Prior knowledge:
The protein has 203 residues and is mostly helical. The protein contains 8 helices and no strands.
Amino acid sequence: MRIKYLLFILIPFLIILFNFNFLVYDYDFYEENFDNGLNESFVKENTLNLFEYFQGDTELNDNFNEKEKLHLEDVKFLINNFLLIFYILSLIFIGSLVYLLYKKDFKTISFNFIAGGCLTLLLILILSLFDFSKLFLNLHLLIFTNNLWLLNPETDLLINIFTEGFFLNFFKRIILNSSIISSILILIGILIDFIFFKKITLK
Length: 203
């Protein structure tokens, strides 16, 4: 019973974190959503520099000022922690799933896939009802312990490259991708239930 509810709770976090971690390093998505009036090659140069910074030990170039660099240190720390949390939850999920498969407890697997997928869709629906600007503001207040994220479009490059519109599209893509994965998970759960239980009942 504990494993049943553990997986049920884990699934929404796994789906959303998976899509966040995938999208944050998806350069094609960034390129599709550059709409800021800046020189395209200049935007690409600084975005690639930012990608290399997040993925390794590359230093940020001097187009970013000191305040932006400090803020991006915080952002990198958060991204790395989100990735770590995703890996930990994934190991717990895989370990629990392997255990259930070993026990041939397909009923519990089916339940978790269906219920976890439905819970994710419910969470997505709730998030979609909020005004994005307020949600975006409250998220920053929650995850950052300083005010370095309060950037000025007159002096700071970062806010000109990554506008609120960019983050709105980022949010929408996570919502869309998470909805698709959740729906697939629900269908897999229904299929498992049908294969292992409905056919037996029909016999």
